[in-house]
């Protein structure tokens, strides 16, 4: 078994996944938190709160690491998985769309595959909550807005699957 730590921005849906380990402990969590903070501290919108469950790996070192950078922690109540639903959904997504489709050959291979998927997830995969744009649009100004009369819809499998294409001029 290999373990990953995922950080998800609730407003943009951007996800940051750390490198994997076979033996997660509080020191690994604190180290990965430092990496996460280093990646996000030069942004306009810095993380201000990190919500997490009550896993024993989230120790005082983890909290101190965040507090040193001005980030507060919010511990979720006991037995409340619905309060962490977006992260749980991301975990399901990465498992179903990526990890279950590969035979992984070790930690380096897992980290590479996860890195590729996270890049796709953040830069190319559409998100309904973001008007079908990725969390980090490549060039947001170049996304054309189409009218309904410019789109052709093809239905398959009795309307269960639909395909959308731009109508020819």
From the helix content, strand content and strand pairing, which structural class follows?
Answer: alpha+beta
The global form is globular
| Ends apart, CA distance between termini | 53 Å
Strands, total number: 6
- The DSSP helix count reads 4
Strand content: 15-25%
**Nearest-angstrom radius of gyration?**
19 Å
Widest β-sheet, arrangement of strands: 1-2
The residue ranges in which pLDDT falls below 50 over 5 or more consecutive positions are: none
Helix/strand order:
EEHEHEHHEE
Largest sheet: 2 strands, antiparallel
Structure write-up:
- 32% of the residues lie in helices and 15% in strands.
- It has 169 residues and is an alpha+beta fold.
- A two-stranded antiparallel ribbon has the order 1-2. A two-stranded parallel sheet has the order 3-4. A two-stranded antiparallel sheet has the order 5-6.
- Helix 1 packs parallel to helix 2.
- The chain is globular.
- The model has no long low-confidence stretch (mean pLDDT 88).
Fold blueprint:
Blueprint: E1 6-8, E2 15-17, H1 26-40, E3 49-52, H2 60-68, E4 72-75, H3 85-97, H4 107-123, E5 151-156, E6 161-166
Parallel strand pairs: 3-4
Antiparallel strand pairs: 1-2, 5-6
Helix pairs in contact: 1-2
